[in-house]
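Hey L., structure's done. Input below.
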Amino acid sequence: MINNIGYVFLTAALAVSLYGVVVPHLGVVRNNWNLVRSAQHAALLNLAFVFAASMVLVRAFVMDDFGVDFVFENSSIDMPLLYKIAAFWGGMDGSLLFWELVLAILTVIVAYGYERSNREVLPYVIVTLNVIHVFLLFLLVTYSNPLATHFPAPLDGRGLNPLLQHPAMAAHPPLLYLGYIGFSIPFAFAMGSLIRGKLDNEWVLTTRRWTLFAWYFLTVGQMLGGQWAYEELGWGGYWAWDPVENAAFMPWLTGTAFLHSVMLQEKRNMMKVWNMALIIVTFGLSILGTFIVRSGVLNSVHAFAQSEIGPAFLIFIALVMVVAFTLVFRRIKLLESRHTAETLLSKETTFLLNNLLFVGIAFTVLLGTIFPLIAEAVRGTKLSVQEPFFNTIVTPLGVGLLVLIGVCTLIAWRHSSGRYLLRNFRWPVLFAVAGLGVSFLLGVRHVGALIVFSAVAFSLSVLLLDYGRAVSVRRRQGGSGWLAAALQTVMRNQQRYGGMVIHIGVIFLFFGLAGNYLGTEHNLTLTQGRPVEVGGYTLLYKGMKTYTEGNATLRAAEIELYRDGAFLETMLPARSFYPNRAEPMTEVAIRRTLAHDFYVVLASENENESATLRILVNPLVVWAWFGFPLFTIGIGLAALYKPRTLGAPAVERGYGLA
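Output:
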């Protein structure tokens, strides 16, 4: 009975969202703010209905109500509570409901939070967000009802896919969704500004923190996904250009380009049309990503939740693109920029090049991802695009972006002379050469790794030298100590130094990725009591061990690890067995250091009581994960910055809508 009530809540939310699509427009036409205010209240009512339906589904998971189809497919009695709750977004129906719930929360914040500062465009911001609500709720009450039931209720469920029963996967999908959904807000403000013809910079300044919010969660979500793939799939890597990985990567690329190019609009009033196009494409790619993940049209180790709603997503994407770009073309004259890049040697040009590289990578990834679909539709043959295609094109473009971090930091606005460039870049270039030489002396011979290490040295030295000069100037001017001057420098320009911290995180990420060129792999069979040397370590196999963890039974090889005669730790590479699952899962053992990861996989347990292992020595991996705390600090600093040119509040401009 209560599950049926939850479905009624979803149906009511759909009706309320339809109301929210129509009424704000009537409020503008009739110059009646009370109608718009009723749409604000409707957003709150929509949130109440969706939240109630979500709690009904959570209750079904916690109470093991296997009469609910979605709970039966994604949960079981023996699952830990954490994964029962995580199963909420572990399948198609629940993930759509989670998306709708988060969007409902954000809609309420926007509807009530910008009544004064963005009163003129707010009605159509609400309309745009409600169009998305209508789409999601229509799917939930028709094709993807997460509260559909059957009778009689089974005694147990099929359980969540064991690959998803990992802490990183409990957080990875919702964080990605926060990123996808977060881009809906700047998209809605862009649509509101286009419809109202209010195309100054206010929509960009208003949505700056929303864009940072979306970018951060999309970034962290992908990093956690990489961590999950590294630890759970047992192949020793964290990125394989899988279609679902690409689905999240594409909006991240265009969203990052948007974050950079809006700075030109804010500071130089440039690239207005480009920024509109970028946010539209970013939102469209977010929807396309969901289509790829959930439609099942492409094979992926990540595609855990497939359904038949793919065509609905494609139709929605097509409608959004047609309507949005039609609005852009209708307002094209109002979007004309006042300034252009004056010379090639200017910061404006580096921003343009930055955007071209990001969009070039995004196009490459999109082409490689959807090409198998195009090939099958045209020629009827199944093809796949493998890693070499992506690596060949994306790697040099990525290194170009890495170098631009340094170039864009020091080059001047409008025009830079040759003397200026020589004075500012001589030390970073020397550091780049030194980085190349040190890497070679340390035994690095792979050309790709040498290029990346040199670029890392260049850009990192630019950032640190630039910050050091700023701190020195602040210290001389204020007469304070070095620590106080360092803190004051950051707090006086949070936007600049928040970006600097993020860029350092990106540099560390590239440094860690370069380790992929230098890894080694070993396959060996160990017998009890007989030590084996591999990768600079000594392994002593003690035998097999059986134990339980959560709802899984693990069969592990117990291995003592030594280095230079000193005991380090006991490693337990294992195979895990889950109820209701015939095939065992791989559980890797990893010893992490700043220099490398020692990565051990149990390949097989042999009849003579020996164990066959696959061992990978993966250099520098931990440096890639250092990006997470740096991104967090950088986004926090950047979010503190408040643009000074944000438009006057509506109380000063008047309350009229017409």
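Residues 1-160 form one domain. The chain has four domains: 1-160, 169-336+351-391, 417-517+631-638, 520-619.

-- N.
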